């Protein structure tokens, strides 16, 4: 078993495929990267959905949000 952290939870991933091949560290790293990129995308979507009052509460402006949400998913 390998472990990848996603949404603050540790996910156990079976490292042995159905063919009995062990997933490489590179594959595990890539999967972890994809999950992190997906999490960033979800967080940015949630940030964009906040109204101006909520943004002020957390010390952000609409311009700050636009800078963050305009980033590509891999950054």
Question: Could you explain how this protein is built, in words?
Answer:
This protein is of the alpha+beta class. The protein has one domain. The chain has 3 helices and 2 strands. The chain has helices spanning 25-49, 52-57, 62-69; strands spanning 2-6, 9-13. Strands 1-2 form a two-stranded antiparallel sheet. A hairpin with a 2-residue loop joins strand 1 (2-6) and strand 2. Helix 1 (25-49) runs antiparallel to helix 3. The longest helix has 25 residues, at 25-49. It is elongated.
Number of H- or I-type helical stretches: 3
Strand content: 5-15%
Biggest sheet statistics: 2 strands, antiparallel
Strand order of the largest sheet: 1-2
What number is the mean pLDDT? 80
Unreliable segments (pLDDT under 50, ≥5 consecutive)?
Answer: none
Number of domains: 1
Question: What is the alpha-carbon Rg in Å?
Answer: 17 Å
